[in-house]
Amino acid sequence: MSDPIVIREEVRRRYAESARAAAEGTTSCCGTSLYDQNVTPDGRAVFGAGLYAGADTGASGAAVEASLGCGVPTAVADLAAGEIVLDLGAGAGGDVLISARRVGPTGRAIGLDMTQEMLDLARRNAADAGVTNVEFLHGYLEEIPLPDASVDVVISNCVINLAADKGVVLAEAARVTRPGGRFAVSDVVADTDMDEATRADVAAYTGCIAGALTEQQYRDLLTGNGWGEVEIRYTHAVHEHAQAAIVRAVRT
Protein backbone atom coordinates (compact mmCIF):
# COMPACT_ATOMS: atom_id res chain seq x y z
CA MET A 1 0.00 0.00 0.00
CA SER A 2 2.88 2.40 -0.65
CA ASP A 3 2.02 3.16 -4.29
CA PRO A 4 -0.08 6.39 -4.45
CA ILE A 5 -1.81 5.30 -7.66
CA VAL A 6 -2.83 1.96 -6.14
CA ILE A 7 -4.15 3.73 -3.06
CA ARG A 8 -6.08 6.28 -5.13
CA GLU A 9 -7.69 3.65 -7.36
CA GLU A 10 -8.68 1.45 -4.41
CA VAL A 11 -10.28 4.43 -2.69
CA ARG A 12 -12.03 5.46 -5.91
CA ARG A 13 -13.38 1.92 -6.44
CA ARG A 14 -14.69 1.65 -2.90
CA TYR A 15 -16.41 5.03 -2.95
CA ALA A 16 -17.90 4.44 -6.39
CA GLU A 17 -19.48 1.30 -4.92
CA SER A 18 -20.75 3.36 -1.99
CA ALA A 19 -22.30 5.94 -4.33
CA ARG A 20 -24.07 3.23 -6.29
CA ALA A 21 -25.35 1.70 -3.04
CA ALA A 22 -26.67 5.07 -1.87
CA ALA A 23 -28.39 5.66 -5.22
CA GLU A 24 -30.09 2.28 -4.83
CA GLY A 25 -31.27 3.11 -1.33
CA THR A 26 -28.86 0.84 0.52
CA THR A 27 -26.01 1.92 2.78
CA SER A 28 -22.30 1.39 2.82
CA CYS A 29 -19.82 2.81 5.30
CA CYS A 30 -16.20 2.71 6.29
CA GLY A 31 -16.42 -0.96 7.12
CA THR A 32 -13.50 -1.41 9.52
CA SER A 33 -14.75 0.30 12.64
CA LEU A 34 -14.31 -1.11 16.12
CA TYR A 35 -18.01 -1.97 16.19
CA ASP A 36 -20.40 -3.95 13.99
CA GLN A 37 -22.78 -1.84 11.86
CA ASN A 38 -20.74 1.27 12.75
CA VAL A 39 -22.48 1.81 16.10
CA THR A 40 -21.42 0.99 19.65
CA PRO A 41 -23.31 -1.64 21.66
CA ASP A 42 -25.29 1.17 23.30
CA GLY A 43 -26.32 2.57 19.90
CA ARG A 44 -23.86 5.48 19.56
CA ALA A 45 -22.85 6.17 15.97
CA VAL A 46 -19.21 5.70 14.92
CA PHE A 47 -19.39 6.45 11.19
CA GLY A 48 -22.07 7.71 8.86
CA ALA A 49 -25.39 9.53 9.02
CA GLY A 50 -26.06 8.65 12.65
CA LEU A 51 -23.44 11.19 13.70
CA TYR A 52 -25.71 13.98 12.41
CA ALA A 53 -28.55 13.09 14.78
CA GLY A 54 -29.53 16.23 16.66
CA ALA A 55 -27.29 18.46 14.51
CA ASP A 56 -28.74 21.54 12.81
CA THR A 57 -28.34 20.30 9.24
CA GLY A 58 -31.40 21.74 7.53
CA ALA A 59 -33.31 19.55 5.09
CA SER A 60 -30.31 17.83 3.50
CA GLY A 61 -32.10 14.48 3.48
CA ALA A 62 -30.58 11.85 1.22
CA ALA A 63 -27.22 13.60 1.05
CA VAL A 64 -26.70 13.26 4.81
CA GLU A 65 -28.08 9.72 4.80
CA ALA A 66 -25.31 8.77 2.35
CA SER A 67 -22.55 10.16 4.59
CA LEU A 68 -19.50 7.94 5.07
CA GLY A 69 -17.81 10.35 7.50
CA CYS A 70 -16.59 10.13 11.07
CA GLY A 71 -17.96 13.46 12.29
CA VAL A 72 -19.82 16.66 11.46
CA PRO A 73 -17.27 19.26 10.34
CA THR A 74 -19.90 21.92 9.71
CA ALA A 75 -20.67 21.87 13.44
CA VAL A 76 -17.21 23.27 14.25
CA ALA A 77 -16.39 25.35 11.15
CA ASP A 78 -18.11 28.50 12.46
CA LEU A 79 -19.44 29.32 9.01
CA ALA A 80 -20.74 32.84 8.39
CA ALA A 81 -22.88 34.47 5.74
CA GLY A 82 -21.02 35.33 2.57
CA GLU A 83 -18.12 32.91 3.03
CA ILE A 84 -16.79 30.52 0.39
CA VAL A 85 -16.39 26.98 1.70
CA LEU A 86 -14.49 24.09 0.10
CA ASP A 87 -15.29 20.50 1.07
CA LEU A 88 -12.43 18.10 0.27
CA GLY A 89 -13.86 14.73 -0.71
CA ALA A 90 -17.46 15.91 -0.80
CA GLY A 91 -19.03 12.50 -1.43
CA ALA A 92 -22.81 12.67 -1.71
CA GLY A 93 -22.76 16.37 -0.86
CA GLY A 94 -24.28 16.45 2.62
CA ASP A 95 -21.71 18.78 4.18
CA VAL A 96 -21.72 20.97 1.07
CA LEU A 97 -25.49 21.45 1.29
CA ILE A 98 -25.30 22.21 5.01
CA SER A 99 -22.51 24.72 4.32
CA ALA A 100 -24.48 26.35 1.51
CA ARG A 101 -27.35 27.04 3.86
CA ARG A 102 -25.01 28.42 6.53
CA VAL A 103 -23.24 30.87 4.19
CA GLY A 104 -26.46 31.95 2.53
CA PRO A 105 -27.10 33.36 -0.93
CA THR A 106 -24.11 35.71 -0.75
CA GLY A 107 -21.78 32.77 -0.05
CA ARG A 108 -20.89 29.61 -1.92
CA ALA A 109 -20.10 26.00 -1.09
CA ILE A 110 -17.80 23.96 -3.34
CA GLY A 111 -17.46 20.19 -3.20
CA LEU A 112 -14.39 18.45 -4.62
CA ASP A 113 -14.36 14.72 -5.34
CA MET A 114 -12.44 12.35 -7.61
CA THR A 115 -15.26 9.81 -7.93
CA GLN A 116 -17.65 10.57 -10.78
CA GLU A 117 -20.39 8.43 -9.25
CA MET A 118 -20.24 10.53 -6.08
CA LEU A 119 -20.31 13.78 -8.05
CA ASP A 120 -23.38 12.61 -9.98
CA LEU A 121 -25.10 11.70 -6.70
CA ALA A 122 -24.14 15.01 -5.07
CA ARG A 123 -25.48 17.04 -7.99
CA ARG A 124 -28.77 15.13 -7.88
CA ASN A 125 -29.02 15.70 -4.13
CA ALA A 126 -28.38 19.44 -4.57
CA ALA A 127 -31.03 19.68 -7.29
CA ASP A 128 -33.54 17.74 -5.18
CA ALA A 129 -32.85 20.03 -2.21
CA GLY A 130 -33.25 23.15 -4.34
CA VAL A 131 -29.86 24.51 -3.25
CA THR A 132 -28.25 26.68 -5.92
CA ASN A 133 -25.20 28.31 -4.29
CA VAL A 134 -23.19 25.12 -4.69
CA GLU A 135 -20.66 23.76 -7.16
CA PHE A 136 -19.21 20.27 -7.45
CA LEU A 137 -15.80 19.83 -9.06
CA HIS A 138 -14.02 16.73 -10.30
CA GLY A 139 -10.43 16.59 -9.11
CA TYR A 140 -7.88 15.40 -6.59
CA LEU A 141 -7.08 16.67 -3.13
CA GLU A 142 -3.43 16.85 -4.21
CA GLU A 143 -4.31 19.11 -7.19
CA ILE A 144 -7.22 21.31 -6.15
CA PRO A 145 -8.66 22.98 -9.30
CA LEU A 146 -9.11 26.42 -7.71
CA PRO A 147 -7.07 29.65 -7.73
CA ASP A 148 -4.80 30.74 -4.91
CA ALA A 149 -6.47 32.37 -1.88
CA SER A 150 -9.97 31.79 -3.25
CA VAL A 151 -11.80 30.22 -0.26
CA ASP A 152 -12.43 31.21 3.34
CA VAL A 153 -12.88 27.79 4.92
CA VAL A 154 -11.75 24.24 4.12
CA ILE A 155 -13.78 21.38 5.55
CA SER A 156 -13.56 17.61 5.07
CA ASN A 157 -15.16 14.55 6.62
CA CYS A 158 -12.92 11.51 7.06
CA VAL A 159 -11.20 11.87 3.68
CA ILE A 160 -7.75 13.38 4.21
CA ASN A 161 -6.59 10.16 5.92
CA LEU A 162 -7.29 8.36 2.62
CA ALA A 163 -4.77 10.45 0.66
CA ALA A 164 -1.37 8.92 -0.05
CA ASP A 165 0.54 12.21 0.43
CA LYS A 166 -1.18 14.19 3.13
CA GLY A 167 1.49 16.88 3.18
CA VAL A 168 0.65 17.78 -0.42
CA VAL A 169 -3.07 17.81 0.42
CA LEU A 170 -2.56 20.17 3.36
CA ALA A 171 -0.28 22.41 1.29
CA GLU A 172 -2.88 22.57 -1.49
CA ALA A 173 -5.60 23.36 1.04
CA ALA A 174 -3.43 26.20 2.35
CA ARG A 175 -2.75 27.47 -1.17
CA VAL A 176 -6.43 27.96 -1.97
CA THR A 177 -7.29 29.47 1.44
CA ARG A 178 -7.05 33.18 2.13
CA PRO A 179 -4.71 34.34 4.95
CA GLY A 180 -6.64 34.05 8.19
CA GLY A 181 -8.96 31.46 6.66
CA ARG A 182 -9.90 28.32 8.54
CA PHE A 183 -9.36 24.57 8.33
CA ALA A 184 -12.04 22.51 10.13
CA VAL A 185 -12.18 18.80 9.40
CA SER A 186 -13.35 15.56 10.92
CA ASP A 187 -10.74 12.87 10.45
CA VAL A 188 -9.29 9.68 11.90
CA VAL A 189 -6.10 9.99 13.97
CA ALA A 190 -3.97 6.89 14.55
CA ASP A 191 -2.50 5.79 17.84
CA THR A 192 1.28 5.72 17.85
CA ASP A 193 1.18 1.92 18.26
CA MET A 194 -0.97 1.15 15.20
CA ASP A 195 0.39 -2.15 13.90
CA GLU A 196 1.86 -2.61 10.43
CA ALA A 197 -0.68 -5.30 9.54
CA THR A 198 -3.49 -2.75 9.89
CA ARG A 199 -1.61 -0.17 7.84
CA ALA A 200 -0.95 -2.74 5.10
CA ASP A 201 -4.57 -3.76 4.75
CA VAL A 202 -6.21 -2.34 1.62
CA ALA A 203 -9.68 -2.80 3.10
CA ALA A 204 -8.62 -0.81 6.14
CA TYR A 205 -7.23 1.93 3.92
CA THR A 206 -10.46 2.39 2.04
CA GLY A 207 -12.25 2.02 5.38
CA CYS A 208 -10.71 5.18 6.87
CA ILE A 209 -8.27 3.53 9.27
CA ALA A 210 -4.90 2.47 7.87
CA GLY A 211 -3.94 5.77 6.25
CA ALA A 212 -4.49 7.86 9.37
CA LEU A 213 -1.75 10.10 10.75
CA THR A 214 -0.77 10.19 14.39
CA GLU A 215 -1.58 13.40 16.26
CA GLN A 216 2.03 14.59 16.14
CA GLN A 217 2.31 13.82 12.44
CA TYR A 218 -0.88 15.78 11.78
CA ARG A 219 0.36 18.76 13.79
CA ASP A 220 3.75 18.73 12.07
CA LEU A 221 2.27 18.52 8.57
CA LEU A 222 -0.20 21.32 9.24
CA THR A 223 2.38 23.70 10.70
CA GLY A 224 4.84 22.79 7.95
CA ASN A 225 2.37 23.52 5.17
CA GLY A 226 0.91 26.93 5.92
CA TRP A 227 -1.32 26.39 8.96
CA GLY A 228 -1.12 27.60 12.55
CA GLU A 229 -3.16 27.57 15.77
CA VAL A 230 -3.62 23.81 15.39
CA GLU A 231 -6.26 22.16 17.58
CA ILE A 232 -6.97 18.42 17.65
CA ARG A 233 -9.87 17.21 19.78
CA TYR A 234 -10.81 13.54 19.96
CA THR A 235 -14.47 12.60 19.73
CA HIS A 236 -14.82 8.80 19.78
CA ALA A 237 -12.99 5.53 19.13
CA VAL A 238 -13.36 4.02 15.66
CA HIS A 239 -10.82 1.21 16.01
CA GLU A 240 -8.60 -0.23 18.71
CA HIS A 241 -5.75 1.79 17.19
CA ALA A 242 -7.55 4.96 16.06
CA GLN A 243 -9.83 7.79 17.17
CA ALA A 244 -12.11 10.14 15.30
CA ALA A 245 -11.15 13.76 15.89
CA ILE A 246 -11.95 17.34 15.05
CA VAL A 247 -8.89 19.02 13.53
CA ARG A 248 -8.85 22.81 13.25
CA ALA A 249 -6.24 25.34 12.17
CA VAL A 250 -5.87 28.86 10.79
CA ARG A 251 -4.13 29.85 7.54
CA THR A 252 -0.93 31.72 8.37
The gist of it:
This protein is of the alpha/beta class. It is 31% helix and 25% strand. Strands 1, 2, 3, 4, 5, 6, 7 and 8 form an 8-stranded mixed beta sheet that branches.
Query: Using only CA atoms, what is the Rg?
Result: 16 Å
The biggest beta sheet reads: 8 strands, mixed
- State mean pLDDT (0 to 100 scale): 84
Give the percentage of residues in beta strands. 15-25%
Number of strands: 8
Q: Which consecutive residue ranges, at least 5 long each, have pLDDT under 50? A: 31-37
Q: Name the helix and strand elements from N-terminus to C-terminus, one letter apiece.
A: HHEHEHEEHEHHEHEE
Class of secondary structure makeup: alpha/beta
Number of helices: 8
| Overall helicity | 25-40%
Distance between the termini: 33 Å
Basic shape = globular
Q: How would you portray this structure in words?
A:
There is one protein chain. With 252 residues, the chain is α/β, with parallel strands linked by helices. It has 8 helices and 8 strands, in the order ααβαβαββαβααβαββ. Strands 1, 2, 3, 4, 5, 6, 7 and 8 form an 8-stranded mixed sheet that branches. The chain is globular.
Annotate the secondary structure layout.
Blueprint: H1 4-23, H2 62-65, E1 84-88, H3 94-103, E2 108-113, H4 116-129, E3 134-138, E4 151-157, H5 166-176, E5 177-190, H6 196-199, H7 202-206, E6 213-214, H8 215-223, E7 227-239, E8 242-251
Helix pairs in contact: 1-4
